[in-house]
Amino acid sequence: MRGANLALGTVGLAAFLALGEAVPRLGLVKEAYFPPTSRIADALGDELADSAFWTALGDTLTGWALGLAIAVGAGIVAGVLISVVPHLREATASTIEFLRPIPSVALIPLAVLLYGTELRSVLLLVVYASFWQILIQVLYGVQDVDPVAEETARSYGLGTWARVRHLLWPTALPYVMTGVRLAAAVALILVITAELVIGAPGLGARIAVAQTSQAVPEMYALIVVTGVLGLLINVGARTVERRALAWHQSVRGEVAV
User: Distances from the Cα of 143 to the Cαs of 58, 83, 88, 152, in angstroms?
Assistant: First the structure.
């Protein structure tokens, strides 16, 4: 089954690349705006041979990794505290519902005002966007704890942190891993957006420079790199999720299929 899916995916990708080559060659769109796949591939090869590209890639991955790590740590800690401290969830519900829908891009002026084009501007946007993905999943996971198991733990005299470790955390972990997977994708989107708009060092800034200098093939090549990054991040997050939840019924069923 997996081999067949891989083959079909390869055929679909080859057809997409062939279409990208044919459409501008046939004059359906102007090559100046949408170059053929072969020209984009040549530009990608030039980018890979440029040390400045790898520096930009490192800047992007640094902002993504740091922002995601901060958001995951803060989201888990905040979610657990809100869940275990009496009445804290009710007290914070309205604040969370007010802050969560605010688009991270709306904070770009604030980030520029505070930190300019430094890495901290990128981290502000990434952490804000990714934090909510983790926090909400933790809250949902804690809410899913079996009340009977909770009462049993209390009757056996388990303290707060013992219940967190042996009851709350195993129940919430599948939700947490879902939040991490979502947050990883959101973090990449915000890193590239911040680099594009703010001008912080990274792939987004190189895309903006290529666009303003009319280097269209190079611009598309860099966009392809961001797409590949997103794919690799998603595959990596799924791999980590399966390993962390190898004991969980959903993952065991997925492996069995």
Answer: 39, 8, 14, 16
Query: pTM here?
Result: 0.85
User: What is the model's pLDDT at position 179?
Assistant: 93
Give percent above pLDDT 90 in the chain: 45
Q: Which of 104, 103, 110, 122 lies closest to 200 in space, CA to CA?
A: 122
pLDDT of residue 257: 39
Instruction: Name the one residue in this structure whose structure tokens are 């069923």.
Output: 253
* Residue 162: predicted pLDDT: 77
SS3 per-residue string spanning the chain: CHHHHHHHHHHHHHHHHHHHHHHHHCCCCCCCCCCCHHHHHHHHHHHHCCHHHHHHHHHHHHHHHHHHHHHHHHHHHHHHHHHHCCCHHHHHHHHHHHHCCCCHHHHHHHHHHHHCCCHHHHHHHHHHHHHHHHHHHHHHHHHCCCHHHHHHHHHCCCCHHHHHHHHHHHHHHHHHHHHHHHHHHHHHHHHHHHHHHHCCCCHHHHHHHHHHCCCHHHHHHHHHHHHHHHHHHHHHHHHHHHHHCCCCHHHHHHHHC
- The amino acid at residue 47 is E
At 103, which amino acid appears?
P
137: exposed, middle or buried (Cβ count in 10 Å: 0-12, 13-18, 19+): buried
